[in-house]
Prior knowledge:
The structure holds two protein chains of two kinds. By secondary structure, chain A is α+β, with helices and mostly antiparallel strands. In chain A, helix 3 runs parallel beside helix 8 (215-226), helix 9 crosses helix 12 and helix 11 packs across helix 15 (405-415). Chain A is globular, with a radius of gyration of 23 Å. Chain A has helices at residues 65-71, 82-92, 116-128, 134-151, 155-167, 181-186, 189-199, 215-226, 274-286, 292-299, 331-348, 352-365, 373-385, 392-401, 405-415, and strands at 4-6, 17-19, 24-27, 33-38, 44-52, 76-77, 80-81, 95-100, 104-112, 205-211, 247-252, 257-265, 307-314, 317-327, 422-427. Residues 1-16 of chain A have low confidence and may be disordered. Chain B is an alpha+beta fold. Chain B contains 16 helices and eleven strands. In chain B, helix 2 (66-73) packs across helix 8 and helix 10 (281-294) crosses helix 16. Chains A and B meet through helix 2, helix 4, helix 10, strand 14 and helix 12 of A and helix 3, strand 5, helix 5, helix 11 and helix 13 of B.
Amino acid sequence: MIRFVFATCLTILAVPAQADVEVQEITTPGGLDAWLVEDHNIPFVSLQLRFRGGASLDAPGKRGAVNLMVGLLEEGAGDMNARAFAKATESLAASFRYNTSDDAVSVSARFLTENRDKAMKLLRESLVTPRFDPAAIERVRAQVESNIRSSLKDPRDLAGMAFDRIVYGDHPYTTPITGSLDSVARLSRDDLVTAHKAALVRDRLYISAVGDITAEELKTLLDDLLADLPEEGPPLPGPAKLNLPGGVKVVDFETPQSVALFAQPGIDRDDPDFFAAYILNHILGGGSFESRLMNEVREERGLTYGIYSYLADKDGAQLWMGSVSSANDRIGEAVQVIRDEWGDIRENGVTKKELQDAKTYLTGAYPLRFDGNGPIAEITVAMQMEGLPKDYIQNRNDMVEAVTLEDVNRVAKDLIDPSRLTFVISGQPEGIETTIN
Amino acid sequence: MRLFLAALMMTALLALPVRAEDEITSFTLDNGMDVLVIEDHRAPVVVHMVWYKAGSADEKPGVSGVAHFLEHLMFKGTDTLDPGEFSATVSRNGGSDNAFTSFDYTAYFQRVSSDRLELMMRMESDRMVNLQLDDSDIATERDVIIEERNQRVENNPGALFREQKSAAQHLNHPYGVPIIGWQHEMRRLDRAAALDFYETYYAPNNAILVVAGDVQPDKVRDLAETYYGAIPANPKLPERSRPTEPRQMAERRLAFEDPRVAQPYVTRSYLAPERNSGAQKKAAALTLLADILGDGSTSIMAEKLQFDKQLAVHTSAYYRGKSLDDTTLSFYVVPAPGVTLKEAEAGLDGVLSDFLDTGVDPEQLDRIKMQARASQIYSRDDVNALANRYGRALTQGLTVEDVQAWPDILQAVTPEDIMAVAREVLDRDKSVTGWLTAPEVTQ
Lengths: 437, 443
């Protein structure tokens, strides 16, 4: 049931609702753990599978293998070629989405109760017996190469690639998950088979299901779906050594508006100060129109359409990141304002009112996220990957409320580090020179 | 959109919930404001939206972008709210808010805990008539929309190309002018232009209230009468009529070059009829035609151009049925390495002429109809998308009944209907063909 129990609402300020999503933790006879939220209102199920590792499992010299492999899962499996597989999926009105990121391969499935078994049989084929037909490989390789070529002329992607090269040293994060034109051209069918065996393994798998299915039905479904995947794969790469020297790197690209990414070291999700940092970020640049950066850079000066900061928590790297775009003749001023704000919040902290406003927003908004089978499945699988217990849904707002002004301002002093705030800017920014080699 | 945020506007599903009639209540206030309530009691969330039947295509000549500019300025304050206080109040109540502008509508929304609905109505009804703008707000926000155009359009050769193509498609209708505005006209937008648009179009008799989520229709009616019902109708609201297209008698061709183009492509668009109230059959056939020709790897374009001949790395077809006036059916072909745009275009022409000869594959049509039926189930999971679907429909000349009839109309479309509309619409005289390329590098 998707239900929320409200605390009494007497004032005009938000008294946080409490999310009361009932998560069942199940273990299948085959030994798979999963979270289930049963809701029989609508006759379909949202199923989320996350395999930890993702593109970080690319072997040396094989960058892009996991991404290309995942792109081929729906391009022929079992006795079906790509078109037969697509036709079968359409006939069932099921939807399977396969995605690669730095740290995970994600499979998002949505299927009707009326043909659930057939849909799961299809999904199983794509996960367990993908064909990697040569013709399909060449077709998808050409698509990936087309995307890579587009990235090489996209100012945001150019900034991102330069940023990764500077920051992540010799970790896989240092290059795009798609691979380069060179590395993708060299990938063989064997590389894809190897990547498949490495990335889709049971002991790094996280599962959530939400919707019209019982615990017993789900257990059977999951064992049928996943029993034949390998138990384990190669080791994960571990943490990256971050290089955030401060200063600026300019990527020259002829376009009217510069795109800037900026970052300094972040904080781990498990750190006791995580929530203090999270609230601090909300006030600095996370809180949409109410954040300091949005107020100073956009509302006061009109220098950009949007500016954000966020805590980026990858498996092997924690960063405090942000981005802004401004015309080439205005980006210099935007960068200066960001640096000023970065220093100011460290020196002077936040106000009691800012903290209170951030808390009422964060606690009020949290239960609103749980508004459908699809969103609940995504939230609950992400929680498992982050190692959060299921009662986090009920306790999270208390953790936000427990943060004090002293906590936030202490964390601002300890963690905010203007000397390591590093900018990578693509475009032709006026008055800005590269200081990072 | 005032701010790039979540994916709220991403999808345009075409069906509606199976039990739509049970969950939807509509009524009209005495001042002419239409109200629609969509119930979903699974979570204590409400989406409160006000849609104005005024968009960029309703602008006067010379002030392109003013509808969108006004959308930004609507957050600047009223007689009783300071600039920024609207969003700050929503945020302090744990909600989020935003707005978006299109050719035919401008919409404002908040997503909050359902017990905060009254506060949202109080503020939204206030800014319908009490907007206060000073000149410094105007200058700063104009810089913001110019940066928004930089981000969305000037930094993106594909977006610049689409603007040029759309201008060529429409000989007389304002759909040829970009929603965000032409850059040179945006620079001259001022307070007077914004207020002129505001005073002309922002009135209860030109607005639709959509409230979706954990609410009771009676309660919504009471609140709507209190807050929106108190605002008098604008008796001078102009009739909604725009310049219309003359006969289009010659195909147009564009070659757009930009060194930032990494992946050339060819596109062709044809002027096409839109969904009309009480007469949606042709649009339903066009919707299925676009799916048959270019939706996904089982479409004819994918089969012929990506699988059989491997001329293309990507193909698609697109038809936007919801539109107040004539819309387009368009095709995209991204050629494979070594394939020229001329060859890609010839491939597209081959697909279209073969299709006109061979007709519809009934199995493919069945699969598409099955997916349309299923989308009625899936769409019940997303009340935001439902609210958007109705808001768009009601500002683009359709009624609640039209939206509810649409799934059955889609299911009733025959192969003959599809072929008839294909023969009618695939008329080169009404088309624009565009090539997007990087200039040749000279040594």
